[in-house]
Amino acid sequence: MPDLFNILWALRPEGLTRVDAVGLDPTILGFTMAVAVASGVIFGFAPLSQLSRMEPAARLRQGNSAATRRSQRTRKLITAAEVAIALVLLIGAGLMAQTFARLQEVNVGFDPDRLLTFTVSLSPQRFPTDLERGQLARQIETELAALPGVVAVGGGSHLPFATWANWSQSAPPEGVPPTDSERDKYHFDHRAVTPDYLTAIGARLVSGRFFEEHDDMSQQPVIIIDDAIAERAFPGEDPIGKRMHSVRYVNTSFEPTWAVVIGVIDGIRDRSPALPSGGQVYWPFAQSPRWELTYVVRTEDDPSDLTDRVRSTVTGLRRDLAPSNFHVMDEYVATATAETRFTALLAAIFSGLAMVLAARGLYSVITYSTAQRSSEIGLRIALGARGKHIFASVLGEAIQLCVIGVVVGLVGAIGLTRFIASLLFDVSPTDPFMFGSMAVFFLGVTLLASYLPARRATRVDPIEALRME
Length: 469
Prior knowledge:
This protein is an alpha+beta fold. It is built from 15 helices and eleven strands. The strands form two sheets. Strands 3, 4, 5, 6, 7, 8 and 9 form a seven-stranded mixed β-sheet that branches. Strands 2-10-1-11 form a four-stranded antiparallel β-sheet. Mean pLDDT is 80; it is low at 63-67.
């Protein structure tokens, strides 16, 4: 178990709330031990109480059939309950695994493969003017693009799925009344990007154009929006050429201004693959230069192989640049899905343990029941019953228990899986395929668990069985 705990600890999401505060609490540990001891005493006392009420003469007279029908029903009820609980957990784990698989297939609006990212600080203390920051940003981009193996390079103020805060402001379209209630409908995230950023990250242009070198302070303010903004601000209209009242960063302060929409892109999911874009406004970096820039470098091969060359190239331009926070873009995507992956892992572990316990319970009950029926089986064999009939009889008892547990488990799962609906993505909490496949899977587990007891029953020696009776 310590190894399992270490594995789970290593796989925990970095953003899991207060995970470092988790530890062994003496109160909880004592309570758990008390429950375990009480469970052992209660479940151990039940058969003893039955035996104490039985007359010795009756006990000797009944021999191997001393187990009453009530005790048999109790064992079968407990086993069926184990099956039901295990099935509920298996269905929950299956739904979480299906959610994780669907998240991997989501079109996040860009291509995260073979992207190296790093951050460069362009603080006003070292680069006091917007022109200096804009020129240096372009120079870094040009030098990196010339490296062997580099396909495209671009820089932006924010990366998709990055954990630092987004810059968000109202950007209402022209003609919207300047009231707070109306402007709040057009509150979008803002980005400042270099001309090649959207191309480098793999964004898809829906209409209009990307930024170009001449989109600088000498030109009119221009922006690119995503399709979520286009649908909300310009429903049924072509947004190209329309104006929006946005905010840009000029001379270390925010400046409200009118900007012309020159392009529309597919929305980029930046918080989670499960959440569509809430709307993103892109400014050209030359018209809204920020004090920090994160570059994306698309490569032909493994992007991490270029880390040292990229670092040396940037520091070669200026020693005080000190690029930092090197990552592969896939790491950001993995972090965004880490919580779902971790939840699916936990569900799989606990459902697997429950399945093993249920299979063990089935095996024990069928083995014990077969042993109790040894005289009956021996008599049937003596009267000419074939092995396949004995085998089918034992399997039938196991399948009956499984069917009862499965029916109860399916009903329970329909009610309980609704509580995890908020954790699911593009998956119904009552997915019929998942419910059906898990029920069939558990039937297969039942057949495996009862195979050995059934085989053993066909080899009962009728003479020995009758002599014992």
